[in-house]
Amino acid sequence: MARFAGAAYKTNVAMTDLPSHESERAEAIRAMFSAIAPGYDRANRWMTVGLDSHWRSEAVTGLLPSGASSNCRVLDLCAGTLASSMEIHRHYPGARIVALDFSEAMLAQGARQLAGRAAQQIATKTASAERTGEADASYDAIFCAFGLRNLTNLEAAIAESVRCLKKGGRLAVLEFFRPGSFFSKTFFTIGGRLLLPVVGGMASGNPSAYTYLRQSIQGFITLGSFQKLLEQNGFRVDRIQSLKPGLTSVISGFKR
Fold this sequence. Notes:
By secondary structure, this protein is an alpha/beta fold. It is about 45% helix and about 20% strand.
């Protein structure tokens, strides 16, 4: 059950496999992602048939105003192997991007792909989305793709985003929310039980990590509940979009 403003929301992920204590659970999730870092991008491509790059491109559209200056700063939360950071850079080559993730191994895997201007514009930082260590009102936009499900305290991460954003700054989230449609429920209940561990395991060598993926989706909150969470914590949501084929959604709003 989601609990909103006034009480910290705890994600309900991989209930049967992860420690119950919040800090131990966070460390177990971090260690799991560090272990699959070398095959992470390959697994994403295989499992989504290449759609993940299209989803990211759609999600970062409108993250910054048209013609944004080189002074704009973007924080990419749960940046992983920097796929989103590089997509943001392609859309807004003048923006300065900080790619933040709790797994140093994931960031290092992505940093190997940086070259040219991207290597100059994208910096990496190992930290959690709940406690970034960034200054108040220091970012023009914050983006997060497929990362919020892995947090142990979702509301703390939202509060941290509010703190780090300038007034009027935009937060955009691309995520697999708890399935609501018949198609998504069927896919993640049946296909997810069989497809994700097999394909993800082949690509990464770690089938259990992709069993966790299905559990984290089914244990997350719905898109509607997440919208309420944003609005109750200082955002005005002005974009909600389901991305083809209806398995993932982008939700975006600005800090009031």
